[in-house]
């Protein structure tokens, strides 16, 4: 009988609960015991029954649509250190766990990948220090890990969608619909900041879905002069056709070509100074991350939870750790290490201002 642990890590995302629910029930269906690690990697580092709890079928009843993550999440500094991972290794063995499924963003999955790569050394160290017996060493020599991608940012390579991104997008669109009504009434302009960290997916998709007048994303930096002219031209044209409101969406990671951030206040100043528009700034903040999961995220998280349990059960010491993604509407199993590497290469290319490379790297994943 296998003992599988599931954890959520990094920023919460709608659909994480649905993912945990599917993992718990699918694992039980396949005659495994399943444990929830509470509070992300902190729970693994702290260990014990307070943090690592066995889950039964009924424990996840009603979780399918719930936002956030009921088993808690955290960004854990200790797990970034080797001593923290050594503690986590010991705690897992003490709880009898031999496989781990992590639902989180790229940082959390990078941690998972490192943990698996280091596992043989960690467990050997526990044996050498006589903290575990020879028998225990042989029982837990290999750790199977699988990642499912939970993040509202949709910033992970090798998957078309991350769990939570469409719920967040839906929330942003609703918020902009509300703002539209008041903007239209007063003939105002609104500059709206949306989340996404270094990725412009949420901002771009929201701008398209709400017919915003202009959008700023990190993937397309421009100089202040260039964006000011371009934005004012677009907004003036829309106004000249009788549009009573102006909506400009700014991704929180938006940057100009000298890599300085483009802030909502910068954009507001241009709209006021050059076009004389009565302008307000709205930062949507964490409402974008809360609330129930939309149908797509419930479905994605459920199918990926089932696929993740299959993946850890089929894993062998020689197979690389998988990440469950979705590509062209199919649930796919990718190499976690490749997805993490590609995500980091895209980020590096953006950092180096090599935007063509960033775009071609991002495209490459869809044309394997
Ligand atoms: O990664 C998810 C995310 O919501 C980002 O979009 C945002 O930049 C960040 O987390 C906010 O982090 P925190 O909740 O720690 O303020």
TrEMBL record:
Region (N-terminal catalytic PFK domain 1): 1-368
GO biological process: canonical glycolysis; fructose 1,6-bisphosphate metabolic process; fructose 6-phosphate metabolic process; vacuolar acidification; vacuolar proton-transporting V-type ATPase complex assembly
Boundaries of every Phosphofructokinase domain copy: 3-312
GO MF annotation: an example: metal ion binding
Binding site for ATP: 11, 75-76, 105-108
Annotated Mg(2+) binding sites: 106
Keyword Kinase belongs to the record: yes
Compartments reported by the entry: Cytoplasm
Keyword Transmembrane helix applies: no
Residues the record marks as active site: 153
Function: Catalyzes the phosphorylation of D-fructose 6-phosphate to fructose 1,6-bisphosphate by ATP, the first committing step of glycolysis.
Record note on quaternary structure: Homotetramer.
Family: Belongs to the phosphofructokinase type A (PFKA) family. ATP-dependent PFK group I subfamily. Eukaryotic two domain clade "E" sub-subfamily.
Protein name: ATP-dependent 6-phosphofructokinase
Origin species: Pichia membranifaciens NRRL Y-2026
């Amino acid at each position: 009988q296998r003992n599988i642990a599931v954890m959520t890590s990094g920023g919460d995302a709608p659909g994480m609960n649905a993912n945990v629910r599917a993992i718990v029930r699918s694992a039980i269906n396949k005659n495994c015991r399943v444990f929830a690690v509470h509070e992300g990697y902190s729970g693994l580092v702290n260990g014990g029954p307070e943090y690592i709890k066995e889950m039964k079928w009924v424990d996840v009843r009603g979780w399918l649509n719930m936002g956030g993550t009921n088993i808690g999440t955290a960004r854990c500094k200790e797990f970034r250190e080797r001593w923290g991972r050594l503690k986590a290794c010991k705690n897992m063995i003490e709880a009898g766990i031999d496989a781990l499924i992590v639902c989180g963003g790229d940082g959390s999955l990078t941690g998972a990948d490192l943990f698996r790569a280091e596992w043989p050394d960690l467990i050997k160290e526990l044996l050498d220090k006589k903290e575990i017996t020879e028998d225990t060493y042989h029982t837990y020599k290999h750790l199977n890990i699988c990642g499912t991608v939970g993040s509202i940012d949709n910033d992970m390579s090798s998957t078309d969608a991350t769990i939570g991104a469409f719920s967040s997008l839906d929330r942003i669109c609703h918020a902009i619909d509300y703002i539209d009504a008041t903007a239209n009434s007063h003939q105002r302009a609104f500059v709206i900041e949306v989340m996404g960290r270094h990725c412009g997916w949420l901002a771009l998709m929201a701008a398209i879905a709400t017919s915003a007048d202009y959008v700023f994303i990190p993937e397309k930096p421009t100089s202040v002069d260039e964006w000011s002219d371009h934005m004012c031209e677009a907004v003036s044209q829309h106004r000249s056709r009788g549009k009573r409101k102006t909506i400009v969406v700014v991704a929180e990671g938006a940057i100009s070509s000298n890599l300085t951030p483009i802030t909502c206040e910068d954009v507001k100043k241009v709209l006021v100074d050059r076009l004389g528009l009565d302008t307000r700034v709205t930062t949507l903040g964490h409402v974008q991350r809360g609330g129930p999961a939309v149908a797509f995220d419930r479905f994605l998280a459920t199918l990926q939870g089932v696929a993740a349990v299959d993946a850890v059960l089929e894993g062998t010491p020689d197979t690389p750790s998988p990440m469950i993604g979705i590509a062209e509407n199919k649930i796919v199993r990718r190499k976690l290490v490749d997805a993490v590497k590609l995500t980091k290469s895209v980020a590096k290319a953006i950092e180096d201002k090599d935007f063509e490379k960033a775009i071609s790297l991002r495209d490459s994943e869809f044309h394997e």
